[in-house]
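In response to the reviewer comment on reproducibility (Comment 2.3), we provide here a single inverse folding case reported in full, input and output, so that an independent group could reproduce the run without further information from us. The structure tokens appear first.
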């Protein structure tokens, strides 16, 4: 599903060399056992490499596990399900205007929120401010967590959104 070239691009733009991603249809919420399966898989991976940080996400037909040495957050959404009306509840008008798409902004906020769990994670995702979008190619955009200092994060970190055919992936990593 994700090529080695895409993974290397993610690593370069997120400034982390040990990013590991695994995606499976078995982890999609259309499978009644998806939560158990994805959590078991993550636990197995972390048994082998307990020093890694991890994040998981799922949508109806896919799930993803992300691992790396830095604090990480990941989100996956079926692109067609994320509409402006929904995103408007968690985003400012300025964020909506600057974002490449509602799905990109949603995934960016969710991934950033998850990456903040080791810091002073806010109680609501709307407290997170996303901006400074940069188009890398037709499938990839980078973004910044603008108010990282509000959450006792030691540095700004790096965000990336990637568009698959029917899904949007968001990543945020607090790497140097």
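Designed residues, in position order:
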């Amino acid at each position: 599903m994700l090529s080695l070239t895409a993974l290397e691009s993610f690593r370069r733009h997120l400034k982390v060399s040990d990013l590991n991603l695994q995606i499976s249809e078995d982890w999609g919420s259309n499978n009644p056992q998806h939560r158990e399966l994805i959590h078991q898989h993550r636990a197995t991976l972390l048994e082998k490499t307990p020093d890694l940080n991890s994040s998981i996400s799922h949508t109806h037909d896919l799930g993803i596990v992300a691992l790396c040495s830095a604090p990480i957050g990941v989100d996956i959404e079926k692109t067609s399900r994320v509409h402006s009306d929904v995103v408007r509840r968690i985003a400012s008008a300025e964020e909506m205007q600057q974002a490449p798409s509602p799905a990109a902004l949603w995934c960016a906020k969710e991934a950033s929120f998850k990456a903040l769990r080791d810091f002073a994670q806010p109680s609501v995702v709307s407290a997170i401010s996303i901006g400074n979008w940069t188009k890398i190619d037709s499938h990839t955009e980078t973004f910044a967590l603008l108010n990282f200092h509000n959450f006792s994060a030691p540095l700004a970190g790096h965000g990336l959104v990637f568009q698959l055919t029917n899904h949007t992936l968001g990543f945020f990593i607090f790497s140097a």
